């Protein structure tokens, strides 16, 4: 590893990239959070979930739809796919234009255009671009390729209810302190959402064992030890178990803030018992990515480095390096990088819970 900890790496970024800001360390910390989100997003794409992903979609609490939460990434069942081609390509490629073209080929009714843009004239791509929304499904576009001759996209009709969610949590530490004062609040926020959005309820019994329970349509309660029940749900084809189940996955980072080398801190214990899966992006993994992207860049990632630096300078006009908006050329090379280094990148993560879990198991 190029740096002994992410805190050391944050100082390097503060000095070399964000020196122009009023608070370089805080700016570097925000950028680190963005990079954790981007690693998670491109990992999901490399796993083959590109057409299932929605970004920052509002998710209602189970049984309490008046309260919703914006989730970083949700995975949705795919109902239909509609290929979309513009030849020659016309920019900007707006949701209105795509929907109009699709209606000429397919019977699409009851969808309201989103007003978003898949690809701008300046080459900024909107990842998992919402084209139009409906009462039971949404149309989401992903860009396959753009050349001088054509633009190829896939528009996916996603069911509004997801089957999985991924949330990223990272908190920095202040100079001279062991942990940030807001870490427990961040943990509680994540834990609350993880426990509120799925039909699978987690209940701690007097012995300390965690049980799971699900309400069936006939108002009966189906309950088992939690590990047994979630394993049954995931392998089941029973609509009673699957209907409102959401697999909750947390991605946390920054070692010193969440746990020590000897034992887990309170924050991590709160998250581990709330998410179905809790993964930890190690200091080594985050440092490796940032080194190869920014500090000692590999040739492949040069377009991504340029997009990052353009987005985080004093003269920046528009950010083109986030999970939502990404420079088109940066997106191309990041996809190639994550696909070519899949096994190594999975090794950047530790599984906190379940105790016997692995990234291979989570992917499957």
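^ Assign residues to that structure.
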């Amino acid at each position: 590893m190029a740096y002994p900890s992410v805190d050391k790496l944050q100082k390097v970024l503060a000095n070399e990239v964000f020196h122009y800001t009023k608070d370089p360390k805080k700016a570097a910390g925000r950028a680190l959070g963005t990079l954790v989100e981007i690693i998670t997003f491109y990992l999901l794409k490399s796993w083959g979930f590109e057409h299932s992903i929605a970004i920052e979609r509002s998710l209602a609490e189970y049984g309490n739809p008046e309260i919703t939460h914006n989730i970083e990434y949700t995975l949705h069942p795919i109902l239909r796919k509609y290929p979309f081609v513009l030849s020659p390509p016309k920019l900007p490629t707006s949701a209105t234009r795509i929907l109009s073209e699709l209606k000429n080929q397919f019977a699409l009714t009851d969808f309201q255009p989103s007003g978003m843009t898949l690809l701008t004239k300046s080459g900024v791509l909107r990842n998992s671009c919402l084209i139009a929304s409906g009462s039971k499904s949404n149309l989401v576009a992903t860009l396959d390729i753009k050349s001088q001759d054509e633009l190829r996209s896939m528009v996916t009709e996603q069911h509004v209810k997801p089957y999985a969610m991924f949330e990223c949590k990272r908190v920095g530490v202040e100079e001279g302190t062991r942990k940030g004062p807001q870490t427990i609040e961040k943990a509680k926020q994540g834990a609350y959402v993880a426990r509120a959005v799925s039909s699978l309820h987690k209940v701690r019994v007097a012995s300390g064992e965690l049980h799971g329970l699900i309400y069936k349509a006939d108002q009966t309660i189906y309950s088992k030890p939690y590990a047994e029940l979630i394993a049954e749900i995931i392998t089941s084809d029973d609509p009673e178990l699957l209907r409102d189940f959401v697999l909750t996955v947390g991605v946390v980072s920054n070692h010193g803030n969440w746990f020590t080398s000897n034992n887990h801190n309170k924050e991590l214990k709160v998250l581990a018992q709330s998410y179905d899966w809790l993964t930890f992006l190690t200091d080594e993994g985050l440092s490796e990515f940032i080194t190869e992207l920014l500090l000692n860049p590999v040739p492949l990632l040069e377009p991504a480095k340029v997009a990052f630096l353009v987005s985080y300078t004093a003269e920046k006009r528009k950010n083109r390096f986030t999970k939502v908006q990404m420079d088109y050329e940066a997106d191309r090379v990041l996809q190639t990088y994550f696909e070519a280094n899949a096994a190594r990148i999975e090794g950047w993560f530790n599984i906190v819970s379940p105790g016997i879990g692995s990234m291979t198991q989570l992917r499957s």
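The mean pLDDT is 88.
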